[in-house]
């Protein structure tokens, strides 16, 4: 993880970052705040000072309690800082990253940012989505990664504690929210099996089978987005189940699974034959996946796509906006 230095507490007392307000204003010319950009600079300054003060106060209380967070009002102060940072679009990446680090150090999850609900600090689902993008952008710019046991996760992939430690991608797929899935995939969320027996793509296909070929739009949209983000769907195969057939060592089990289990979905053209092991994957799509992988490794998704010297239509293709 790219190191982010948290503001250090002053032992024994809370920070007094706002005591110098008179001095700040006394040094300003009378008309210095007439311009909007100047007022915006001062908003950024005060917002930064408040978030830093909140972090220092929280750390002071935590230090005085043997490095154990007191939770309650002492911890919820961080969520006030989080809301202010979002409301005023705080641009100081180091401060926002330090805030995210402190939240994770106490909770081990970011579900109050990812999940709208009674615990959420955002007014509605729409504001929650905007806030998620705001913090995803900061986390990506700061190269943030977090440890959970022996595993390391980026901000976007940290498991959600109240959802059985499922990844945000899996939870969004279960919700059938293609809008949220698009956001997560654009920022490089990993589509992995987590602790479940099947990968998220298989879980969508299994749910589609329940609808007797009258498929819900949102689920189909989620499937199409996943097909843009991965080279091909890899199905869970228990080779021991087919042992009695004495199949060759190089037998295409993927083809057998998709034809036997998802034949109707294949016939309805929801899965291209090139994305499920029946035919080779298109070179163009493999190139997209490789370019995105390189950008992901350098914490450049999705904004790094716009820096590439390629035509606009290819940028849209790389950004998962086109099939």
Automatic annotation (TrEMBL):
Residues 279-319 form the SOCS box domain. It comes from Operophtera brumata (Winter moth). GO terms for biological process: intracellular signal transduction. InterPro entries: ASB17, SOCS_box, SOCS_box-like_dom_sf. PANTHER family: ANKYRIN REPEAT AND SOCS BOX PROTEIN 17 (PTHR20966). This is Ankyrin repeat and SOCS box protein. Keywords: ANK repeat, Ubl conjugation pathway. Pfam families: SOCS_box.
